[in-house]
Specification:
single chain; 5 helices; alpha+beta; about 120 residues; three-stranded antiparallel β-sheet; two-stranded antiparallel ribbon
Length: about 120
């Protein structure tokens, strides 16, 4: 919960005994508030078939990034992006350049075409 307290302090969020309250300005200029239950983990449902468990810290960060967007999409995006420390480590090893290359420059190996012959 230290990370949560840090987020609350850094972003001036409100809180009560049961919620973390995230105020934001809506597109029309009105001030709105999002209430997030104060639980270590919450289950987020995209639909009746797709569910994901996320920590309250990850949920708060996703809402801070895009308060009117899809929480599901923000969490999935955050899941795919490595933290800044991992990005720097990739740059040092040269892996990030390969991942950023256009798709047609990355060689794709087809199944069964490994150069060993057919038989």
């Amino acid at each position: 919960m230290n990370r949560l307290k840090k987020l609350i302090e850094e972003h001036g969020l409100e809180e009560d005994s049961e919620h973390v309250i995230i105020p934001y300005h809506a597109a029309g200029g009105e001030v709105r508030r999002i209430f997030v239950l104060r639980r270590p983990y919450l289950i987020i449902a995209q639909d009746q078939f797709h569910r994901a468990t996320a920590s309250i810290e990850d949920i708060v960060e996703a809402i801070l990034n895009n308060p009117e967007g899809s929480l599901w999409e923000e969490l999935k995006l955050a899941e795919r992006e490595p933290p800044d420390e991992e990005k720097e480590e990739e740059d040092a090893h040269g892996n990030a350049e390969q991942a950023d290359a256009p798709p047609d420059e990355n060689p794709v190996k087809e199944p069964g075409n490994n150069g060993a012959g057919d038989g």
